Amino acid sequence: xxxxxxxxxxxxxxxxxxxxxxxxxxxxxxxxxxxxxxxxxxxxxxxxxxxxxxxxxxxxxxxxxxxxxxxxxxxxxxxxxxxxxxxxxxxxxxxxxxxxxxxxxxxxxxxxxxxxxxxxxxxxxxxxxxxxxxxxxxxxxxxxxxxxxxxxxxxxxxxxxxxxxxxxxxxxxxxxxxxxxxxxxxxxxxxxxxxxxxxxxxxxxxxxxxxxxxxxxxxxxxxxxxxxxxxxxxxxxxxxxxxxxxxxxxxxxxxxxxxxxxxxxxxxxxxxxxxxxxxxxxxxxxxxxxxxxxxxxxxxxxxxxxxxxxxxxxxxxxxxxxxxxxxxxxxxxxxxxxxxxxxxxxxxxxxxxxxxxxxxxxxxxxxxxxxxxxxxxxxxxxxxxxxxxxxxxxxxxxxxxxxxxxxxxxxxxxxxxxxxxxxxxxxxxxxxxxxxxxxxxxxxxxxxxxxxxxxxxxxxxxxxxxxxxxxxxxxxxxxxxxxxxxxxxxxxxxxxxxxxxxxxxxxxxxx
Length: 511
Known about the structure:
CATH class of the largest domain: Mainly Beta
Low-confidence stretches: 1-26
Helix content: 25-40%
Largest sheet: 13 strands, antiparallel
Strand content: 35-45%
Number of helices: 12
Strand order of the largest sheet: 6-5-4-3-2-1-13-12-11-10-9-8-7
Number of strands: 26
Mean pLDDT: 92
Shape: elongated
Number of domains: 2
CATH architecture of the largest domain: Clam
Oligomer: single chain
């Protein structure tokens, strides 16, 4: 009798503990008040069509149309100019591969050159891009986006959550005035949160915090939220055909699936990739590019241009060194500074000039701030750069994040003509206030009749101007300031005669 009583007591205690745990696990979970996180995800799986039906989807083909806001460009801030894309995406879920065929319409291109065709192929070992110009390794950003789509896209997100050993509830949130249960877990070291509608249990959004390898790299820890919307019924599965991507609280892109097909045949030829190209993609350093010193071009005594994907220039003045541009990354800018100190040992760095707000152009500014250097920035760009300097970098701490002392930027605001230094290598800074150049300034070397035109000058393969409007606005600014220019260079262009540029502007105006 006593033994039976003890067994009953143990069962009651166990039930109370289980009930308490279930209550604790479901506290604040709208629509899942009596379920634990796993059971809540199971309800969501059933709402989409059921676990078994989703597991049976081995491939997926989408016909898509979408747009992306070009936040990274140095034209103007919000509202942003927009790029458009249309094409097909094939997901081989069984072998973790993606094929994306896109016709891209790029608004910044020259007339009649806005459309381009790009095919992206990604597999477990890496990926490649195919264009009319040939094949090339895809970027780390391409690899990340493809792998996220395979694991965290609409067909797989709930299955991935269900398999996560650390699945748990977080505080509920309201989306579109509707309460949502939030289940969270870790995927490949990335924290993931899924918002489940309290009424229909469907996943309405997926949120991650991570360091991206596209233009958002410079913002450190970025919160991305992808909204699932426009649900439609396909082969027993309720599928969200519209994905809206938001980063750091700002809507960035939207993609609409016009047609959805499950379990399509896989064409192995379409997924074929060159193994050497694939290896290069996986080994890419992303935006954390190192500075190379083998392309030194002397523009004048004490004025050294280092050509690369983004050009930097070292200017020796009587009282210190001026670094013209701190682009791409902290490691790149650190290399520029070290090269300047080797060229002119014992001479301090007195200033850094950052002439544009385009994100890769400002990638090394956090390093300059960490070193306490004065940085000349355009007045219109201060708000953006203040935000970039205060952006958290806990996932991959850089020099500024690792700085033991809190360092406020030493901004030198350029709102009108500024002069730096004296002697033969003195420079003058002039804001460009054109419709397409208002967030840039140019740098003039009076003694050398030399002009640095920020991010406005680039030549096409046929020798024509990439964007004649940009250089037209530079020419207007040169005329207004009454500058005598013999040679011009820029962020992506080596030195060329000014007369050649003027002729190209005139040709573009009359063609």
